[in-house]
Give the backbone structure.
Amino acid sequence: MSPADDIGAAGVPPAEVPAARAAGLPAVASGEGSAPAAKRSLGSLALRVGSGILFVPLLILLARAGGWAFLALIALQVTLAQSELYGMMRGKGLTPFRVFGLLASLAVLWWVFRPYQGHADLLASFALILSLAFALRRPEVPKQVESMAVTLFGVLYIGWLSAHLVMLRELPWRAGTPYSEGASFVLLAFFVTWSCDTGAYAVGRWLGRTRPWARISPQKSVEGAAGGFVFAIVAAFVARSWFAAYLSPIDAAALGILVGLFAQVGDLVESLLKRDASHGDSSDLIPGHGGVLDRFDSLYFCAPVVYYYLALVIFRVP
């Protein structure tokens, strides 16, 4: 998720202030509270940097270790993010099957970690049947269909899309490359995606004026989106010269373009979910970033993009 998302409606044109207030956002007229806003921005930036300094070395360490260590990291991320999503949905009056949804998502991670088990259709079939069967235990609860739907949505949105990070780390087994190279596949996805987020934030704060998505994300601007797009392409070339030598110049450009697009779509999708549930951040678990869902929303869209590009285009895995 781009750091510019969901930090308030400061700078929203006057015509958009009522819409921001209707969405439960603090609307500040132009010129009001600029000094406090600047202080909050600097404080938020410091917290973001501090959180990154703590997390990035851990990510690199576990990505290099691979195997069960990296699987545990992704399982923890799925557990926290899915709890945040289901919590937001409960705020809408829905009652998702939280434990079942989480177990189904962890089962998806296990399935891709041990791909030679086969019968993924069996897992999908039982997930659907059990979610329907569980509804029989609480016939008095309203909005049963919506609750069942959001349970399975959580499994697909967070469980299945996150599973591509595990698939990236385990790709060397299928691509015929050294297992250690899987760390670079994972770090490529993180590096280019989060560079896009950073570029969108920096350029949006500096030059952002045009906000066609104000009803979804008040601070998301065309200028910021363009900055994120450019940063993603540059990051892909930096990764190529730094740790991803398997990328050709064409591959680096293509991946940068794809991630620059998909990361920002993922950002907007999560913002739409929060607006619909009348939430600011998904939680305050990560200082300066919000929740786990806020931090990984772009990666949910970009991890599959990077995985399928590497698997199908570069390594031509059958």
Summary: Residues 34-65 form the longest helix (32 residues). The chain has one domain: 14-314. Confidence is low (pLDDT under 50) at residues 1-40. Residues 14-314 form one domain.
